[in-house]
C-alpha cells in the first residue's frame, strides 16, 4: 500500500491466525443466555472471572482507594500530575511483595529491579527491544501463546525460532530440542540472543519442572544468552507439583553472583492472577541494571496510569486480602478445571494433565479425519460454526502435532461451561455415530441440534 510504512502494512502481527479469527467470529455472534442462547461461546480467551466478587467486596470496604483519597484527604491533584516513569514507590513495593507471596515467600524481590509496563504484552516487547537487534532470534518452546508473534516479532524485527516439544513427554523441554533449535537458527544465519518460556505454560497449563529449569539455566549459561521467564500465570497454580519460579531455581543453585543472574528476566502482570487485563498492569523484573535502566526509559511508551497504581498499591498492601484472594482463587480454578476435564472425559476426550493456568490443552486427535493441519482446521471450523464454541487450534500456537486445542474455562459461568460440554457431547456423539455407519443418512444440521440443547439436558443418557 502506498504512503504507509512497511511496519503498518506487513503481516507479521499475526492477526490472521485462527486464534484471532475465532475471536472475530465470536464478536459477530456472542452467546448470551437470554439474548442469544444459540451464539458462540467464547472459550478462546484466557480471562479469569472467577474471583471478581472478592475484588468487588474489597473495593466496597475500601472506597477511598478508588476515590482518589488517602487518610480521608483527596489526592486527586497529586495523581493527576504524577508522571514519573519510575512508578509510584508504594505500588512497586506492594507488587514485589505480592510476587513473593505467590512464590510462597521462598524468594524476595527488590522494587529497584522492577520496571512497570502497560501489561505483559508491553513487558515482553520492551525486553526484546533491550536484548536483541532486528534479525536476531529468540528461541521459544512450542506450543506457545499466539500473541508472541505480535509481541516479540512485529515491531522489534526479531525472529522466533521454535523449540519443538512433543506429546511423547507431555511437551516438556529437552536438551536435544534446545540444541536443535539453536542449530536451526544458526543454519538460518540468525544470532540467538535468548530463550523465552512461559511458566506456567500458555497453552499447556503446566508448570515448568525443576529439571527443565535447570536444563534451561545450563543452556543459557553455556551459550552466553538470556532467559525470559513469563510468569504471568504464576498465581494460578492450583495443584501439585507446585510452581517453581526461575528465581527459586537460581537461588537454590547459589547463582546470585554468576553471570547468569544478570541474564535472567521475569515478566509479570496482573491480567491473569487478579483478572485485571483491562487495567493494563505489567512488569519486568531483572537483576541487570542496564536492562532495568533501558526498559524504564522505554516504558514511557506504555505506562500504567497513576490512579490504577494508587488503587492497586492499597489493595496489594492489604496482606490479609491478598493471601485470601490467592488461595480462594486457586481453589476455584481447580474446581472449574475439574469440571472441564471430567466433562470432556465423559465425551471420550482427554486433556494433558495440568496444574495451572486458565485453560486445558485438549487432545482431539481422534476426531480428525486425518492427522494433518488441514483436518485440524476442518474440525476447528466445525466447532466454531456448528458447535458454536470458540476454542484455539494447536496450529495457532505453533504446535507441531495436529489435533490439539486450547480450551479456556475461567471466563464464563459454570452453567455456560456445562452448556459448552453438552454441545460438544452432542457433536462428538453425532460424529462418531455417523462414522460408525457411513451409509447412514443422518447428517448433522446445526439449527436442529442447537434448538434441542435445552431439552437434551433433561434427556436420559443414551
Ligand atoms: C503468556 C502470556 N504472556 C503475555 C500475555 C499478555 O498479557 P497482558 O494482558 O498483561 O498484556 C498473555 C495473555 O494472554 C499471555 O498468556
From TrEMBL:
One of its GO terms (molecular function) is transaminase activity. It catalyses: S-adenosyl-L-methionine = 1-aminocyclopropane-1-carboxylate + S-methyl-5'-thioadenosine + H(+). GO terms for biological process: ethylene biosynthetic process; fruit ripening. Its EC number is 4.4.1.14. Residues 41-424 form the Aminotransferase class I/classII large domain. Keywords: Ethylene biosynthesis, Fruit ripening, Lyase, Pyridoxal phosphate, S-adenosyl-L-methionine. The keyword Cell inner membrane does not apply. Pathway: Alkene biosynthesis; ethylene biosynthesis via S-adenosyl-L-methionine; ethylene from S-adenosyl-L-methionine: step 1/2. It is an enzyme of class 4 (lyase). Its cofactor is pyridoxal 5'-phosphate. InterPro entries: Aminotransferase_I/II_large (IPR004839), Ethylene_sulfur-biosynth (IPR050478), NHTrfase_class1_PyrdxlP-BS (IPR004838), PyrdxlP-dep_Trfase (IPR015424), PyrdxlP-dep_Trfase_major (IPR015421), PyrdxlP-dep_Trfase_small (IPR015422). PANTHER family: 1-AMINOCYCLOPROPANE-1-CARBOXYLATE SYNTHASE 9, BIFUNCTIONAL ASPARTATE AMINOTRANSFERASE AND GLUTAMATE/ASPARTATE-PREPHENATE AMINOTRANSFERASE-RELATED. Belongs to the class-I pyridoxal-phosphate-dependent aminotransferase family. This is 1-aminocyclopropane-1-carboxylate synthase.
Amino acid at each position: 500500500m502506498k504512503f504507509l510504512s512497511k511496519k503498518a502494512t506487513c503481516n507479521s502481527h499475526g492477526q490472521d491466525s485462527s486464534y484471532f479469527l475465532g475471536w472475530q467470529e465470536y464478536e459477530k455472534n456472542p452467546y448470551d443466555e437470554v439474548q442469544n442462547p444459540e451464539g458462540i461461546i467464547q472459550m478462546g480467551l484466557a480471562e479469569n472471572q472467577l474471583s471478581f466478587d472478592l475484588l468487588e467486596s474489597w473495593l466496597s470496604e475500601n472506597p477511598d482507594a478508588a476515590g482518589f483519597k488517602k487518610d480521608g484527604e483527596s489526592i486527586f491533584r497529586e495523581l493527576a500530575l504524577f508522571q514519573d516513569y519510575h512508578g509510584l514507590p508504594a505500588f512497586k513495593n506492594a507488587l514485589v511483595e505480592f510476587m513473593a507471596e505467590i512464590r510462597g515467600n521462598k524468594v524476595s524481590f527488590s522494587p529497584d529491579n522492577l520496571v512497570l509496563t502497560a501489561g505483559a504484552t508491553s513487558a515482553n516487547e520492551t525486553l526484546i527491544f533491550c536484548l536483541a537487534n532486528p534479525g536476531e532470534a529468540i528461541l521459544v518452546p512450542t506450543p506457545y501463546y499466539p500473541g508472541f508473534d505480535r509481541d516479540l516479532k512485529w515491531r522489534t524485527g526479531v525472529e522466533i525460532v521454535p523449540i519443538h516439544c512433543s506429546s511423547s513427554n507431555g511437551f516438556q523441554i529437552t536438551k536435544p530440542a534446545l540444541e536443535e533449535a539453536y542449530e536451526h537458527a544458526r543454519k538460518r544465519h540468525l544470532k540467538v540472543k535468548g530463550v523465552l518460556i512461559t511458566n506456567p505454560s500458555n497453552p499447556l497449563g503446566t508448570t515448568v519442572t525443576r529439571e527443565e529449569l535447570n536444563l534451561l539455566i545450563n543452556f543459557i549459561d553455556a551459550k552466553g544468552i538470556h532467559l525470559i521467564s513469563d510468569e504471568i500465570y504464576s498465581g494460578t497454580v492450583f495443584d501439585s507439583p507446585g510452581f517453581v519460579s526461575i528465581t527459586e531455581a537460581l537461588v537454590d543453585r547459589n547463582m546470585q553472583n554468576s553471570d547468569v543472574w544478570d541474564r535472567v528476566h521475569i515478566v509479570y502482570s496482573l491480567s491473569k492472577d487478579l483478572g485485571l487485563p483491562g487495567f493494563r498492569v505489567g512488569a519486568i523484573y531483572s537483576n541487570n541494571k542496564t536492562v532495568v535502566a533501558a526498559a524504564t526509559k522505554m516504558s514511557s511508551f506504555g505506562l500504567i496510569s497513576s490512579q490504577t497504581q494508587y488503587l492497586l498499591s492499597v489493595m496489594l498492601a492489604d496482606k490479609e486480602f491478598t493471601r485470601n484472594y490467592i488461595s480462594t482463587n486457586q481453589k476455584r480454578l481447580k474446581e472449574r478445571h475439574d469440571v472441564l476435564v471430567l466433562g470432556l472425559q465423559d465425551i471420550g476426550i482427554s486433556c494433558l494433565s495440568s496444574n495451572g493456568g486458565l485453560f486445558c490443552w485438549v487432545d482431539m486427535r481422534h476426531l480428525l479425519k486425518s492427522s494433518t493441519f488441514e483436518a485440524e482446521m476442518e474440525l476447528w471450523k466445525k466447532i466454531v460454526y456448528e458447535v458454536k464454541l470458540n476454542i484455539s487450534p494447536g496450529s495457532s500456537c505453533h504446535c507441531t502435532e495436529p489435533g490439539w486445542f486450547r480450551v479456556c474455562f475461567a471466563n464464563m459461568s459454570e452453567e455456560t461451561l456445562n452448556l459448552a460440554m453438552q454441545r460438544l457431547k452432542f457433536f462428538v456423539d453425532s460424529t462418531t455415530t455417523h462414522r460408525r455407519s457411513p451409509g447412514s443418512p443422518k447428517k448433522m444440521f446445526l439449527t436442529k441440534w442447537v434448538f434441542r440443547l435445552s431439552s437434551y439436558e433433561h434427556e436420559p443418557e443414551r
